[in-house]
Write a structure and sequence with these properties.
hydrolase, alpha+beta, Deoxyribonuclease I, Chain A, double-stranded DNA 3'-5' DNA exonuclease activity, Endo/exonuclease/phosphatase, 7-stranded mixed β-sheet, manganese
Length: 274
């Protein structure tokens, strides 16, 4: 299997302190809590964005994160979906809960917060399978609403990072087998086009920018020995506004955490900003 992925620029000046922002689809916070706490303590990101917490608000284990120094905000939902933002040593200031644009959409897939001068947006984009059908239509409509919100954030000129499980494989280089995934909603032309529009609007895909050759996976299915055979793909992304892209130092995947006992089917991804 490939070694852990991390690409960096030359060393910083001694007076510049990098900030690590990470994203992790935890696939059930109750089931993965020991692994999650382990990862937080071992890697210590300044900001950790979680997806698929699968927890109602009242059951979110905020006290467990407090014990190791993290403050949290979260947007939960019973049994599926759910997003959270954890910050090391300070309170995130919630800005937006739920993606604007559809008052009928009650899925817990979006949360936005200010952390110092940085705006952090954490998303869990709809999967869209099976396609075609209403779930795929919902995915595309959600992506259109996301683009509208991201355009507003872009226009503000505030340093902004939009992270999470986008459920989009952007290009063929981002999947172990094009043929195996060709009918999946994650790889349909409409999904890819919607993602490409975000980049054309001026957002920087941090992992792709520093790994232009591709071959970087963030997800391995539990079935068919996908992890053991390294049959994965890249669907967890970190998009930077120009103000953040100017501060990009490195980006990577904490791949080895996917191989631990009772792991999520995703690995954490991260960027470091000056």
């Amino acid at each position: 299997m490939r070694p852990p992925v991390a690409v960096a620029v030359p060393a910083l000046a001694s007076n510049v302190r990098p900030v690590r922002i990470a994203s992790f689809n935890i696939n059930g916070i109750k089931a993965r809590l020991p692994r999650l706490l382990e990862w937080l303590e071992e890697t210590r990101p300044a900001v950790a964005c979680l997806q698929e917490i699968k927890s109602q608000d009242a059951n979110f284990p905020a006290d467990e994160f407090e014990k190791i120094g993290y403050k949290a905000i979260w947007h939960g939902q019973k049994s599926f979906n759910g997003v959270a933002i954890l910050v090391d040593g300070q309170e995130p200031i919630e800005v937006q809960r739920g993606l604007p644009g559809d008052p009928e959409d009650d899925h817990a897939r979006y949360i936005e917060a200010d952390i110092g001068d940085l705006r952090v947006v954490n998303i869990y984009l709809p999967n869209g399978n099976p396609q075609p059908g209403p779930k795929f239509d919902y995915k595309l409509a959600w992506m259109a609403r996301l683009r509208t919100r991201m355009a507003e954030l872009y226009a503000s000129e505030r340093p902004t990072i939009v992270v999470g499980d986008f459920n989009v494989i952007p290009e063929n280089k981002d999947v172990w087998s094009v043929k195996a995934m060709e009918n999946d909603a994650l790889m349909q032309p409409e999904s890819r086009d919607a993602y490409a529009r975000l980049l054309h609007d001026g957002w920087t895909d941090a992992l792709d920018t520093l790994n232009p050759q591709g071959g970087i996976w963030t997800f391995w299915d539990y079935q068919a020995g996908a992890w053991q055979r390294d049959h994965g793909f890249r669907i967890d992304h970190m998009l930077l506004s120009p103000e953040c892209a100017d501060r990009l130092l490195s980006a990577g995947v904490d791949k080895e955490y996917r191989g631990r006992e009772k792991a999520s089917d995703h690995a954490p991804v991260w960027v470091e900003l000056a």
